[in-house]
Design goal:
alpha/beta; four-stranded parallel beta sheet; 5 helices; 14% helix; elongated
């Protein structure tokens, strides 16, 4: 059983190193550059490390970047990094303060989790550059600003999760990964400084599961569709631009890619948009020929308080979604716990 060697430091705040051959838990303080050097040397002596967890609570000058760079050089298979930096008191809550982070590549890393924090008094973690991660199959970015082209440094991804993310350098988030099987996109309102849902282009012919939670995207296009997609979850916020029927074409075009989906979950906002845009679907055949279950979720809670909690699906919309799969079950969830 792997155990965990714990490192704590009031400035750097580092913890969590798993040593497969160790059976004890110890603790070290790292408060000087000399102790940092000793820490790095200690890591270097453990050639069989498979997993490292690092957590930083303050920047500590160059220490955070230096430790992260060294962690990538150790040829581990799994690396979890949390950079939970608070703003200096001289900054107000509405001023953006960025901590630039560069990721050196790895030929052995298979699982990478990188987490920032998104509070009003937290610094923003911004990826500025990265080298190639040729073996990386699982990537999770939480409260991170990524630059256009970063995902292309991870060509062999199978599992990708982006949560509370922001994008720089391009108005379009491009995901082009031939082996990608599971894709989760949540709370992309950090995508831009406005409240729209951004633009997406996803080319993933092996995608089996898609989970999208956030503002309705302005654009969501695919390469050759999703021929392997079996599970799809779409939950859109009902707010400002998303109230407009102009987003209905995006929804309809996305549903047309779900020909092989077996289990589909839609939020009530999507049904509401389809109800008000029946002209878009009245002459279209139902794309869901393999559907086994359709689940309808209540409206997503946002800053806007809604007077109604339920949307009645019109006969035209029900025909569009279910006519090709008469045996599919329909479940309506009235409240989310």
């Amino acid at each position: 059983m792997p155990s965990e060697l714990v490192f704590c430091h009031p400035d750097g705040g580092i913890y969590g190193l798993q040593f497969p051959m160790s059976n004890s838990i110890s603790q070290l303080d790292i408060s000087t550059m000399k102790e940092l050097s000793n820490f790095v040397n200690l890591l270097s002596r453990h050639k069989n490390l498979s997993s490292i967890d690092l957590e930083f609570h303050r920047k500590g000058d160059v220490r955070a970047q230096r430790i992260i760079n060294h962690a990538f050089s150790l040829n581990v298979q799994q690396l979890t990094i949390a950079c939970l930096f608070k703003k200096n008191k001289k900054y107000s809550h509405d001023e953006r303060v960025a901590f630039p982070l560069s990721l050196s590549g790895s030929k052995t890393l298979e699982h990478l989790s990188l987490r920032g924090s998104c509070g009003l008094f937290d610094e923003e973690i911004v990826l500025t550059s990265a080298q190639r991660f040729s073996s990386l199959t699982t990537l999770l970015l939480h409260s991170i600003t990524l630059y256009d082209g970063f995902l292309s440094m991870c060509p062999n991804l199978k599992n990708l999760t982006l949560f509370s993310y922001r994008m720089t350098g391009s108005p379009v988030l491009r995901i082009s990964h031939p082996q990608l099987s599971n894709l989760t996109l949540e709370k992309g309102e950090c995508f831009t400084h406005t409240v729209n849902g951004g633009r997406f282009h996803v080319s993933a012919p092996e995608l089996a599961s898609l989970h999208f939670f956030g503002f309705c995207p302005q654009m969501f296009t695919t390469g050759d569709g999703f021929p392997c997609l079996e599970n799809a979850h779409l939950s859109f916020h009902s707010r400002l631009e998303c109230i407009s029927g102009s987003y209905a074409p995006t929804i309809v075009n996305l549903l047309q890619q779900f020909r092989n989906v077996k289990h589909l979950t839609l939020s009530m906002e999507i049904i509401e948009r389809l109800n008000s845009s029946e002209e878009l679907i009245s002459h279209r055949p139902c794309p869901l020929a393999n559907l086994k279950s359709l689940t309808l979720l209540p409206e997503v809670a946002t800053f806007v308080q809604h007077k109604h909690t339920r949307v009645i699906m019109s006969p035209e919309v029900q025909k569009y979604l279910l006519s090709s799969s008469p045996k599919a079950t329909l479940t309506e969830v009235l409240t989310l716990i």
